[in-house]
């Protein structure tokens, strides 16, 4: 079970107790299909994804390298579309957004959630239809709102009283009337890391239902002449494994919808229940499947609406991680193997917290293996670390790698498709890795590797 999955408080940068290492796995070469991308296979010992061997990928494109299994990504997008066939599925671009990814999303018939002007710009550059985009953000600037309204995004999710005024002014200036949803917080304590729980009252997102702010926001938006209120939005957090948090939130927000109907005589047609479905980072993780969650949410909303005497709204969801996460791996080359006698072996690779900040930030767990070959050597208790000047620059806290691991070997970390590239940095002036999409034996660079020129491009001093 991932540490991340527990409401463990601020466990970021915490080092696991040394006396409690995990048990070695049965095999160091076996790929758990729950954790690795759908097309991942070992052929003659070497890992291939999308029919392309990792040695060829590393030789041609260098390391670290993000490798996206296009078939896996598209398959998961399709699974959501099928499960939510009577609803709207907005892929949450914050998990991973490139022009190619935006096109996959469009081709698979999903809509797109963007949470900044930058994400909107990437989507538009990819030719993503503006009317299928929803715009999020707890502090959207006037310029961002202007761009969203001017380009005709399908909806804006309002997050603050200031934004109501700002968006009304922007819309009036453009003589437009954008569709808007109000983001409410339901008071649900999601079972996840506190940094990514978003529905309790003491945090920055949305309008609290418990304090009356949400009801106030509804009234103010209704008074705004240039805003077309179409629904409510609730997102409880991210990397969640149990249905109960989603269910309680769905019930509360559907009741609130019924309250709006009763008090104001207004029927809001849309109910967006956000994203947040967890994925398997390790074999112990047990993710929910889209079909189960779709059935449960739909029946809860239906029941509440029947009881409140209002028509069933159109449901929307916003999965990000559950579509992009399992489709991606990161390929690294081992640089040094350092045995700290009696404790563990530190395996340093050519990336680190600049391409995966999640371990340092949330104490996340990952699965990693030697992938350029297989090995029958003894399992060696290891810590996979990067090349940054931080002792917290850890990619995988505790794992077993084969004792014959040596510099030049390739290791892969699974389930890095979401929130790794999108949260990458240039710390220590490391160029950000390239990203390739692999499918049916062919490889396409979808984001090129940064180089020294890129690192110096903005430094005009
Ligand atoms: C409003 C909103 N929608 C969707 C998501 C996507 O979440 P996830 O990637 O966990 O599905 C997030 C991130 O937590 C979010 O804040
Ligand atoms: N970035 C986070 C999740 C935040 C989701 C966006 N609201 C992660 O890596 O898990």
TrEMBL record:
Residues at the catalytic site: 389 (proton donor)
A GO biological-process term: lysine biosynthetic process via diaminopimelate
Catalysed reaction, written as an equation: meso-2,6-diaminopimelate + H(+) = L-lysine + CO2
Keyword set, alphabetical order: Amino-acid biosynthesis, Decarboxylase, Lyase, Lysine biosynthesis, Pyridoxal phosphate
A Pfam family of this chain: Orn_Arg_deC_N
PTM sites of type N6-(pyridoxal phosphate)lysine: 94
The Orn/DAP/Arg decarboxylase 2 N-terminal domain, residue ranges: 72-324
Record EC number: 4.1.1.20
Stretches the record annotates as Disordered: 1-31
Residues bound to pyridoxal 5'-phosphate: 276, 318-321, 419
Protein's pathway: Amino-acid biosynthesis; L-lysine biosynthesis via DAP pathway; L-lysine from DL-2,6-diaminopimelate: step 1/1
Assembly and interaction partners: Homodimer.
Similarity comment: Belongs to the Orn/Lys/Arg decarboxylase class-II family. LysA subfamily.
Name recorded for this polypeptide: Diaminopimelate decarboxylase
Organism for this UniProt entry: Nocardiopsis sinuspersici
Top-level taxonomy: Bacteria, Bacillati, Actinomycetota, Actinomycetes, Streptosporangiales
Gene encoding the protein: lysA
């Amino acid at each position: 079970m991932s540490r991340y999955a527990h409401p463990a408080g601020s466990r970021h940068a915490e080092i696991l107790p040394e006396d409690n290492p995990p048990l070695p796995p049965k095999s160091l070469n076996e790929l758990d299909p729950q954790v690795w991308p759908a097309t991942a296979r070992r052929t003659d010992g070497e890992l291939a994804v999308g029919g392309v061997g990792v040695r060829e990928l590393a030789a041609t494109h260098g390391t670290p390298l993000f490798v996206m299994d296009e078939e896996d990504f598209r398959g998961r997008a399709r699974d959501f579309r099928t499960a939510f066939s009577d609803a709207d599925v907005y892929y949450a671009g914050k998990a991973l957004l490139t022009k190619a990814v935006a096109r996959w999303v469009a081709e698979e018939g999903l809509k797109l959630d963007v949470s900044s002007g930058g994400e909107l710009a990437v989507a538009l550059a990819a030719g993503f239809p503006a009317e299928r985009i929803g715009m999020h953000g707890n502090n959207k600037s006037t310029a961002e709102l202007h761009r969203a309204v001017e380009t005709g995004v399908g909806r804006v999710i309002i997050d603050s009283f200031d934004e109501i005024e700002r968006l009304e002014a922007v819309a009036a200036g453009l003589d437009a009337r954008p569709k808007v949803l109000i983001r409410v917080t339901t008071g649900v304590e999601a079972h996840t890391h506190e940094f990514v729980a978003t529905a309790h009252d003491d945090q920055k997102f949305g309008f609290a239902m418990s304090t009356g702010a949400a009801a106030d926001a509804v009234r103010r938006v209704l008074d705004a002449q240039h805003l077309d209120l179409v629904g409510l939005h609730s997102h409880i957090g991210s990397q969640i494994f149990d249905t109960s948090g989603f269910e309680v939130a769905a019930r509360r927000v559907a009741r609130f919808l019924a309250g709006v109907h009763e008090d104001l005589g207004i029927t809001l047609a849309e109910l967006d229940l956000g994203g947040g479905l967890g994925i398997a980072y390790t074999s112990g993780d047990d993710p929910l499947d889209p079909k189960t969650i779709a059935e449960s949410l739909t029946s809860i909303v239906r029941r509440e609406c029947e009881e409140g005497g209002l028509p069933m709204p159109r449901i929307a969801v916003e999965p990000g991680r559950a579509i992009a996460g399992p489709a991606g791996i990161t390929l690294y080359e081992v640089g040094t193997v350092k045995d700290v006698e009696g404790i563990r072996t530190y395996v340093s690779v050519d990336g680190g917290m600049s391409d995966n900040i999640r371990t340092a930030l949330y104490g996340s767990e990952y699965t990693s293996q030697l992938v350029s070959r297989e090995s029958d050597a003894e399992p060696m208790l290891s810590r996979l670390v990067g090349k940054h000047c931080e002792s917290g620059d850890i990619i995988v806290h505790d794992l077993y790698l084969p004792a014959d691991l040596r510099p030049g070997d390739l290791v892969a970390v699974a389930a890095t498709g979401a929130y790794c590239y999108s949260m990458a940095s240039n710390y220590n002036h490391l160029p950000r890795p390239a990203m390739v999409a692999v499918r049916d034996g062919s490889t396409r660079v979808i984001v090129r590797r940064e180089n020294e020129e890129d690192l110096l491009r903005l430094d005009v001093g």
